[in-house]
């Protein structure tokens, strides 16, 4: 079957990510969506750059309206940004009966009501997972995963630029202006960083989450918006001494009298997970009456993380177009006829084939040569040591003890190799108790 035909409006950072990820993962995406997804057209004012990304795989045009007018195009992806021409083009695409995917938080926070109404009248979807917190599927979580709950509040670090600046101010004790310049030099902040540092970008995203959480229209004009430009390094330091971190939070809360919608720097207890979200990362905490508190963490910007969310929307819409109403989302994510047979070319590995690193605690006789013998056996088995700690015998077994514990951290190795080596070590007469082995996962 012919792949779903996508037209990209704008092929900058995110657009090129969408292009690359769709290419790289096309087979998996087809198996999930039930049909291939292909970028057939790209519109960009910089046709040369667009061609350098799209090559001969998509038709490149300078006029976005050519994409919208093309009856072959099923889904239009708007990656232009802002409220101006982007709004017109989204409305025109909807009027032309196209489904739309957009990453444009500003557009939806301000004009969402009008856009969603137009889409409903035309019977098309406007999808926007990428508009809030980039690659984190927070729209899906709020709209679908948490649908049983009365959402009570949502609080998020939803602007990576400001979180990077705040992290640097805290780590290095530097003032805002100094760090902003550094962030611009490193590409973490734009040449004109106003929307980010004044809290506007976060307020756009908080506005969208507020609407989804509480079933109210998007109301950016009612949001309280305060950025980080007036924050002093001194306050970050004092807050730290009191056990808090300062984060720019987008907050929306259900109260008896109404809904709070606000963005401002906030003290957060340092022990909260969200207080430890550093650098350009994003995180959103959602509190629902049934589920309690849940946390979503990941990259809130960048080429491929944002593309990940855009493509998830493309897959959703493709599943809708394919319309098997009972199995819109396949129970095991991939269309059932594309599931691999058990074991076929992607088997679940036996534990002996698992690769991980290890913490070992070995109770040994405190004698000369014991450590050398054990490390020799590890080396002989091809296992590389990351760290070794030898406890004082007195500490381990009390005054005059002749036993001690060797603690060894290894680098990654096959479990089967580790089993063989541990059997040898366990057999040494100087090893006095069963060896404790705990697997170590860096998760980085
Ligand atoms: N400028 C945003 C940020 C990314 O710094 O998080 C896009 O919303």
UniProtKB/TrEMBL annotation:
The keyword Magnesium does not apply. The active site is at 205 (proton donor). It comes from the Bacteria. L-homoserine binds at residue 190. Transmembrane segments: none annotated. Pathway: Amino-acid biosynthesis; L-threonine biosynthesis; L-threonine from L-aspartate: step 3/5; Amino-acid biosynthesis; L-methionine biosynthesis via de novo pathway; L-homoserine from L-aspartate: step 3/3. Keywords: Amino-acid biosynthesis, Methionine biosynthesis, NADP, Oxidoreductase, Threonine biosynthesis. CDD domains: ACT_HSDH-Hom. Signal peptide: none annotated. Its EC number is 1.1.1.3. GO terms for biological process: methionine biosynthetic process; threonine biosynthetic process. NADPH binds at residue 105. PANTHER family: HOMOSERINE DEHYDROGENASE (PTHR43331:SF1). This is Homoserine dehydrogenase. It comes from Alicycliphilus denitrificans.
């Amino acid at each position: 079957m012919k792949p779903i035909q996508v037209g990209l409006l704008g092929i900058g950072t995110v657009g090129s990510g969408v292009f690359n990820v769709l290419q790289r993962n096309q087979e998996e995406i087809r198996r999930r969506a039930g049909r291939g997804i292909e970028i057939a057209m790209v519109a960009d004012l910089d046709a040369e750059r667009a061609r350098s990304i799209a090559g001969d795989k998509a038709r490149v045009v300078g006029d976005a309206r050519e994409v919208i007018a093309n009856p072959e195009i099923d889904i239009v992806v708007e990656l232009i940004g802002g409220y101006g021409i982007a709004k017109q083009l989204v409305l025109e695409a909807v009027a032309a009966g196209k489904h739309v995917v957009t990453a444009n938080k500003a557009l939806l926070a301000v004009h969402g009501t009008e856009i969603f109404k137009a889409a409903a009248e035309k019977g098309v979807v406007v999808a926007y997972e990428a508009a809030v917190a980039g690659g984190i599927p927070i729209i899906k979580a709020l709209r679908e995963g948490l649908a049983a709950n009365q959402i009570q509040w949502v609080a998020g670090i939803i602007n990576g630029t400001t979180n990077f600046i705040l992290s640097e101010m805290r780590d290095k004790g530097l003032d805002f202006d100094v760090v902003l310049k550094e962030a611009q030099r490193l590409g973490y902040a734009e040449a004109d960083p106003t929307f980010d540092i004044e809290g506007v970008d976060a307020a756009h995203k908080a506005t969208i989450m507020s609407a989804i959480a509480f079933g109210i229209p998007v109301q950016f004009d009612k949001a309280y918006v305060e950025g980080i430009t007036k924050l002093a390094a001194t306050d970050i330091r004092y807050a730290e001494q009191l056990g808090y971190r300062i984060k720019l939070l987008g907050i929306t809360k259900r109260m008896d009298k109404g809904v709070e919608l606000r963005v401002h720097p906030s003290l957060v207890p340092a022990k909260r997970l969200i207080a430890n979200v550093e650098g350009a990362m994003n995180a959103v905490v959602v509190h629902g009456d049934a589920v309690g508190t849940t946390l979503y963490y990941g990259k809130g910007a960048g080429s491929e993380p944002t593309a990940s969310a855009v493509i998830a929307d493309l897959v959703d819409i493709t599943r809708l177009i394919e319309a098997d109403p009972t199995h819109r989302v396949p129970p095991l994510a991939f269309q059932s006829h594309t599931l691999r047979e058990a074991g076929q070319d992607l088997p679940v590995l036996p534990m002996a084939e698992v690769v991980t690193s290890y913490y070992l605690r070995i109770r040994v006789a405190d004698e000369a040569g014991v450590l050398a013998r054990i490390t020799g056996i590890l080396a002989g088995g091809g296992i590389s040591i990351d760290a070794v700690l030898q406890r004082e015998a007195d500490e381990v077994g009390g005054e005059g003890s002749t036993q001690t514990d060797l603690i060894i951290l290894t680098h990654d190795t096959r479990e089967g190799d580790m089993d063989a080596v541990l059997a040898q070590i366990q057999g040494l007469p100087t090893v006095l108790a069963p060896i404790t082995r705990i697997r170590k996962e860096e998760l980085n």
